[in-house]
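Shapes recur. Our protein:

. . .
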Amino acid sequence: MQTTRHRHGYTLIELLTVIGALGVIAVIALPRYSDYLDSARSVKTGVHFSDAVRIAGQEFVKHQQLTGLGQPGSLPVNEDEWILRFDNNGTAVAPGGGPAFIANSAGDSSTGAIGIIWDSADERLIVHRPVFEGVGAASTEITAEETRHLPASSRAPVDNPAYSSSPG
């Protein structure tokens, strides 16, 4: 009587075939994943930049509304206070590591951190996006004068006589 042996495991050919298939997949997937990471990092820098510009514009409009109503203004007094307005909980991280915003700087091209420069004498904020991951540098200057020229619907109601609180 002949007994049958049950083989356990895989043959060398089967193992080499699986390893070869995984190698081909890795050769195709790794460059695409690297491109995906680069793209995500450049987008993150752009988002930090556009958020800072948007928030700064809102802060200037709020400041003008308050001063137009005879109340004290609300603009930050230095770069660190501006950075707190952009990242109020201090958790924003630049795509390359480190803080997302840097005071008194044109930004950091090695990390993608956004540079913030505040000129309190002229009430002028400059937001810099450095060259990072193939995306070019950009700078935006936001001033009180610039935000005075917004459409009437964006300005404080004090500009509209219908909203005046003085007796008519």
Remarks:
- Residues 12-68 form the longest helix (57 residues).
- The longest strand covers residues 114-119.
- Strands lie at 101-103, 114-119, 124-129, 138-143.
- The chain has three helices and four strands.
